[in-house]
Amino acid sequence: MTAESDPPGAHSEAAAGPLGRTAYWIGSAGLLIATAADAIAVAGRHTGFHLLGSIEVVQASVVLIASSAMVAATIVGAHASVHILTERLRPGTARRLARGAALLGTLLFLLIAAGSAWVASDLWSGFEQTELLGIPLRWLRLLWIAAALLIAMLFLRTATRRAA
How far is CA 157 from CA 77, 95, 109, in A? Predict the structure, then answer.
């Protein structure tokens, strides 16, 4: 994570480390797949070639894109935050509030992961899949659950580092 004094946008790919680079590549692959599917579908409409299921491919790619973007944003500490109150507080108080916010972020993403796991467990034996292409949704759900747990772990790491 970055220091409180770092200006916004001062984060480099090197600061993200291997986990950040992995998230970057997964998100890039999702974006490339979504763009290619949509571009082929649009070009196909003009040439008479129809790509069935392009919307399903884009929707599945969004899971990759969103999950990796949220992991990457958490790694570099780039989540949106408002400092209108905390910048007027003493540094110690501001640090305690930042630690509390990170702990609340941990709790939030643990609850999101638990809810997602609950939905996944209810639908696991239903072999849920997309209509046209039959893309299995269980693996996309597992990817999101793993991402939510990773985000929770990263928030917890931020909270414990601020405590030290």
Answer: 11, 14, 13
Give the type of residue at 140: L
Place of tokens 């003493």: 90
Residue 49 three-state SS: coil
Question: Is 13:20 a contact under the CB 8 Å cutoff?
Answer: yes
Read off the pLDDT of each residue in 83-108 and give the average, rounded to a whole number: 91
| Domain residue limits at 97 | 13-77+90-163
Predicted local distance difference test score (pLDDT) of residue 14: 53
Q: Give the three-state DSSP class for 97.
A: helix
Reported as a single tens digit per residue, the pLDDT across 41-93 is 999 989 988 888 999 999 999 999 999 999 999 999 888 877 888 889 999 99
Q: What is the pLDDT of residue 84?
A: 86
Q: Which stretches does DSSP call E strand in 35-114?
A: none
Specify the number of domains making up the chain.
Answer: 1
- Position 129 in a domain: yes
132 vs 35, 54, 120, 127, CA distance in Å?
19, 9, 21, 14
Query: Other CB atoms closer than 10 Å to residue 88's CB: what's the count?
Result: 9
Least Cα distance to 135 among 63, 71, 32 occurs for 63
